[in-house]
Amino acid sequence: MKLQRLASYGPAFVLIVVLLALWELYVRSGQIALTILPTPSAVVVALFENWDVIYPHMVQTMMETVLGLLIATLLGLLLAILLDLSMWARQSIYPVLITSQTIPMIALAPLLLIWFGYDLGPKVIIVTLYCFFPIAVACADGLLGSDPDLMRLMVSMRASRWQILRLVRLPGAMPAFFSGLRIAATYSVTGAIVGEYVGGYQGLGIYMQSSANAHAIVLVFAAIVVTAILSLLLFGLVSLIERIALPWYQGSRQRSFAAKRMG
C-alpha cells in the first residue's frame, strides 16, 4: 500500500522535472537575461551559497507561521463548536465571518503594525487571520454533517448535548477539520511573508524585499524555494497528524480510492 501511495506521486514528480528542464533550457538558450530569470540550477547554487544568511530569516518566518497556525486552529475549533451549539451565534456571527474575508489582508497589515509595532505580534495575528477562516468553516460544516443515526441513538440513550458533541459530532467532524487545517497550512507561510513585507526586521519576506531592491533576482527565487518547502512540510505534517489521529478514516479513504481505480 505504501508503494502504491508513493507511485501515485510519480506523474506530479515527472511533470515538475519536465517543467524545470524546459525552464533551464529556455534561459540557457539566451531567450531571456539571467539577471531577469535565473536558471533552476543557479537558484539551487545560490540557495546553498547563501544558506547561512537565509537560515535566520527562515527561522523567524517559521516561528511566526507555527504560532499563528496554532492560535488559528484553537480559535477556529472553538468558534465552530459555538456556531454548532447556538443557532443565534450561527445567524449572527457566520455572516460577519464571511464578510471579514472580503477585507484585503495587505490593507489590514499596515494597521496592525501601527497598533502593535514591528515585533512578532502583528505577523502572528496576520497568519492567524489567514488560517482562521478555512479551519472554522470546515469544522462547522463537519459538525453539521453528523451521522443522524448515531445522533438518534445517543438521544435514545438520554445522552446530554455535550456528550453527543464529544462522542459523536466532534469525532465525525474531524475529517472536515483536517481538510480545513491542510488548506490553512498552505496559507500560513504566505501570511507571515505578507506581514514581513509590510514591515519587520527579519524573515523571508524581508529577505525577498531586500534582494529585489538589490536586483539579486536569483536570491529572491532562492527564498521562494524555501517558502515552498516550508509550506509543503507543514502540509505534510498536518497530513501525518491526521493519519495518526484518524486511522479509521484513512483506511476507508484508501479502500474507496482502490475501488474507484478498479472500477
TrEMBL record:
It is a multi-pass membrane protein. Residues 58-242 form the ABC transmembrane type-1 domain. GO terms for cellular component: plasma membrane. CDD domains: TM_PBP2. The chain crosses the membrane at residues 6-25, 32-54, 66-85, 97-118, 124-146, 167-194, 214-241. InterPro entries: MetI-like, MetI-like_sf. It comes from the Bacteria. Its main location: membrane. One of its GO terms (biological process) is transmembrane transport. Keywords: Cell membrane, Membrane, Transmembrane, Transmembrane helix, Transport. It is found in: Cell membrane. PANTHER family: ABC TRANSPORTER PERMEASE PROTEIN HI_0355-RELATED (PTHR30151:SF20), ALKANE SULFONATE ABC TRANSPORTER-RELATED, MEMBRANE SUBUNIT (PTHR30151). Belongs to the binding-protein-dependent transport system permease family. This is Nitrate ABC transporter permease. It comes from Reticulibacter mediterranei.
